[in-house]
Design brief:
Layout (H helix, E strand, L loop, with lengths): L8 E6 L2 E6 L6 H19 L12 H5 L8 E4 L4 E5 L21 E3 L14 E10 L9 E5 L5 E6 L2 E6 L14 E4 L9 E10 L10 E5 L1
Antiparallel strand pairs: 1-2, 3-12, 4-5, 4-6, 6-11, 7-10, 7-12, 8-9, 8-11
Length: 219
C-alpha cells in the first residue's frame, strides 16, 4: 500500500521575522493549546537567531507574491436550497437554470452536507437553486462563488448565465469533492436585486452533492 505524507506545519525565516503556516484545526481546545505553543516557539526563534531550525529563508519579495486581494465580506450560502433530482438529465432542456422557472414545488435541502445524509440515496444528476440579495453598494467590488467541495462535478449559472464548469461529468478522477473552486460571477449579477444561483451537480458514485461549505466572497 502507499502511505501519503501531508505537511501540517511549516516555518521559514523572512527578513528579521519568522513565517509560520499551519493546516491543523486550531478551533478546538487542543488546537488552541497547540497554537499557543507555536506562538511561544515562534517568539523564542525570533529572539534566538542561534537556533538551527528553521534552516530555510524566504526573501521578502517572494512572500509578497502570495498576497491576495482583501476580502470585504463573506456571504454563507449553505442554508435552504431548492433541490430536485434529474435522473433523465433533462433539467437543462426544461429550463431549470432560468430565473423565471417556477421551483416552488421543489424540495428544500441544505448545502455543506451530502444529499445521502438528507434522505437521497442516489447517484446521478441533481439541481440546486437559491436566490441571494447582494447590496447595491457592492457594485464596484468583485464577487466570487466559492465551493469548498462538490461531489463530483458541477455547472454553475448566475441569473441564467452559464459561467463555469468544475470537475468532470464522466471522469471520477477529476472530482472536485475535496477541491475548493472559485468563480468570478460579478458580471452576471444584478446588484441591489435578487440574484439566482444554480448548480447542476453530478455524482458519479458514493456520496453526492454540495458536500462542503459554499459561500460568496466579496472583495
Amino acid at each position: 500500500s502507499t502511505v501519503g505524507i501531508y505537511d501540517q506545519l511549516f516555518a521559514t525565516r523572512v527578513g528579521d521575522g519568522l513565517l509560520l503556516a499551519s493546516s491543523l484545526d486550531h478551533t478546538a481546545e487542543a488546537g488552541q493549546w497547540v497554537l499557543s505553543r507555536l506562538l511561544t516557539w515562534g517568539k523564542e526563534e525570533v529572539a534566538g537567531k542561534e537556533h538551527a531550525f528553521p534552516t530555510t529563508e524566504m526573501p521578502v519579495e517572494r512572500l509578497l507574491t502570495f498576497a491576495v486581494a482583501r476580502t470585504n465580506a463573506v456571504v454563507p450560502l449553505n442554508k435552504d436550497w431548492h433541490f430536485k433530482l434529474d435522473p433523465q438529465q433533462e433539467g437543462e432542456k426544461l429550463g431549470w437554470a432560468a430565473p423565471d422557472f417556477d421551483d416552488r414545488d421543489w424540495a428544500t435541502i441544505q448545502a455543506g452536507r451530502m444529499w445521502e445524509s438528507q434522505g437521497y440515496s442516489y447517484d446521478g444528476m441533481a439541481w440546486y437553486r437559491k436566490v441571494v440579495d447582494i447590496p447595491k453598494r457592492k457594485k464596484d467590488e468583485k464577487v466570487y462563488l466559492v465551493a469548498d467541495g462538490v461531489d463530483d462535478a458541477y455547472r454553475l449559472w448566475a441569473n441564467g448565465k452559464a459561467v463555469a464548469v468544475h470537475g468532470s461529468f464522466t471522469d471520477h478522477d477529476k472530482t472536485v469533492f475535496m477541491t475548493k473552486t472559485e468563480t468570478d460571477i460579478t458580471d452576471a449579477l444584478n446588484f441591489g436585486q435578487p440574484n439566482l444561483i444554480v448548480l447542476q451537480v453530478v455524482d458519479l458514485f458514493g456520496g453526492g452533492g454540495i458536500s462542503r461549505p459554499i459561500y460568496l466572497r466579496i472583495e
